[in-house]
Amino acid sequence: MLMSKTPLAVAVMLCAAGGLGVSPAAWSAQGSAELPAMVVSATGYKQETLRAPASITVVDQEQIQRKPVADLAEVLRDIPGVAIVDSGVAGMKRISLRGESSRRVLVKVNGQPIPDHSSYGSPLLLDVNMIERIEVVRGSASVVHGSNAIGGVVNITTRRTAAGDTEAFVGAGYYSATRGHRLNGGILGATDRFDWRLQASKADFGDRRIPRGTAKGTDDPNKYSRLKPSGSEQKSLSAELGWTLDERQRIAWQGDYFKQEAEAWLPAQENMEMGLDFPKRDSLRNALTYTFEDDSALFHSIDGRIFHQTGKRVMDNTINIDMAPIMTRNTFTRSHDKLTTHGLQFTAASRLFADNNTVFGFEYQKDKLDVDKLATRIARVPAAMPPVTTLTPSSQLSEQAFWSAFVQQQIKLTDSLEANLGARYYDIESRLKKSTDRGKTKKTDDQLVGSASLVWQYNELSSLRANIAQGYTYPSLTQQFSATPGNGAMNYGNPDLKAEKATTYEVGWRMEGEQLTADLALYHSKAKNFIDKVRISSTADDYLTACATTDICFQWFNANKASTTGVELMLAYQLESWRPYVNMGAQKRRLEYGTGLKTWDSGLPKFQGRAGVEWYATQELELDFYVRGGGKSRRDDYDSKGDPDRQRTSSYAELNVGAYYQPAWLPNLSVAVLAQNLANRRYRNPDELQAAGRALDVELRWSF
């Protein structure tokens, strides 16, 4: 859809962002609560936070270190509009923004996109100790950041140190809910010409302990005190080597390696035993970057990179059906996936028109997904008869390539009023090059998306914003071509899928005062060709073969429309030694299908949030008392047998106490402690495993 086909003049929006939502302990008792001074991810150029036209939240290194977090997803959990998704695999958490699936959220590391063509979306597989800063843009952001940014963007920047400085650190953590532990360490340094960074971590998490009882959100009658299996192991290594050519230019190599094993917990089913394991999920990323910064030059900022990534995944799916004496059937499917990505990016910012920033950008990326599967089925019909063994191998090679170009223009109307206009053009092609299950095919698409915003900073402390932005997500290779087992069913791709498109409208207000810091946003998002799944028969499409491992089959399809309306609030008030705060989001979504069915049961909770108070007890000790809670949700879906099922979660509230201690007599040591779910409440968030019971997390860090 061209930008002219969308009524860009109809709506206005405001961004609700800032760095107050995640870890309130980031502010000192002696200083005022402040929003981050500068952000980049909203428009592609550096600007004051009060002038940013997008809903953006910033989390920095200090905030991360003041709270024990077993993984990156937990750093972001309390931002309004953010939900964590694990789909039964606790070790592979992903992020959802404003109710959009993880497939519609773009994750970037140092500006480099992290592709993932699974049906789940990009897991946050990064060690938190390598992070300097995270900027989370909520709402459609495809003009500045590209495809898959319908829900928003998580832009992660890794650590660097100033010239002449050297830092080394070691850390350890213990997490009682999983009997898990983490060890990490690193060294950073810089001279006038060179800088370097080397970090490593290792973590091992066991099964999640929960309050004893039936598993929430399932029909499983069994009683559990832990979810077995649900453990994971992780190892990572991250490095960077930079060369400063002169005071304006820098070249750097960046490399990251991540290795993981994870197990999925699945509820028990009558006459059926299922298992889903990921014995291998590895990723390797390399990038060569060039940056130029000179505020007096015609192009005052230039950023370019070329990158190469490989990801390897092994998935084991087991389904054992025992309906003796009628029949028994044991099925084991092993899938080997290899995703190879290479690409380049170039962005330049200039002041071609007076003192207004103009940002130009170009991007190219090519993904190749190579999949090999072997399904082994042993059936006895009737159960007393000799077994019949069937081996079903399959393989598939598919590719997706795109290029895009964009421009973002700042327009300063007055000293206090400015606008931003942007547009990006996409050209994309997906190709099934070979397959044992279906014929070769090719699909192409092109798209033009736009954005427009208005920001009025009516005094030094406050601003009003209005924004409309379009988002665009092209179907993944899995959604188009693959046949993927999972949770007792086969999920088939659909080559005829259309790209998802969305337009987000926002209005809001932000204030940064000596004591009061506030951020409020109202938004409405309209999506078209929303991609979902529907149950089918195994012969419903010429592209489908008979289900090799199960009689339960689903296929991806385009729902007609999805409309989401919500509000987000972040509020904090700084007293001498106390800081009360509230971070809250509420939203509702209506799905409209091509059959005429309309439903509000989309799976979104009515609200999610956190409210609490910080107490700066001494110069060395900070305490944080807070309640985290969520509202009810309902979703019309299918259970693991393919039968219609309404999934429900109930409202909840849990009590938590956190502490951060840095002794004056040993300033290199810091201790972070979090006592979670003190009332031992039983609850489950949508698309997550049941929450852990009463637990204690402790992290120690030593810098030298």
TrEMBL record:
GO CC list: cell outer membrane
Gene3D superfamilies xref list: TonB-dependent receptor, beta-barrel domain, TonB-dependent receptor, plug domain
Region (Disordered), start-end ranges: 207-235
GO molecular function: siderophore uptake transmembrane transporter activity
Record-linked Pfam families: Plug, TonB_dep_Rec_b-barrel
Residues annotated as domain TonB-dependent receptor-like beta-barrel: 244-678
Protein's membrane topology: Multi-pass membrane protein
Family label: Belongs to the TonB-dependent receptor family. Hemoglobin/haptoglobin binding protein subfamily.
The name this protein goes by in its record: Hemoglobin/transferrin/lactoferrin receptor protein
